[in-house]
Amino acid sequence: MPRRPGAAFLVGVGSHLVLDAFPHWGCDLRAPGAPEQFLRIAKRDGLLGLTAMAVAAFAVIRRARAATVAAMAGAVLLDLDKPFLYFFGVNPFPNAVKRLHTRVQSESPEGMPNEFVFG
Fold it and tell me: How far apart, in Å, are the Cα atoms of 102 and each of 1, 84, 95, 97, 99?
């Protein structure tokens, strides 16, 4: 889809939902010390993700760059709820999107081994 950034964005969102269905790590923010743990891991995860996205954006041919960036934006879009909730106390998505994402999501504190396998 090198010339179809809109379609690439939608595929990115779809891929996020597919991968969220697999068990993976998630922090129970109500547990003692969890907000600090979340922020510590989120910083590392965010920096690693941004680095990987920058490398991917510059590794593709120029005509595919917009679609590649759009696909990556779509893939991370649904997880913007976490920093919004942490920093602003609000989820930016409509209720239908929140319900879908919650229904698909398969997070647990025991899911870290899967993160390494998927990575």
Answer: 29, 16, 10, 8, 5
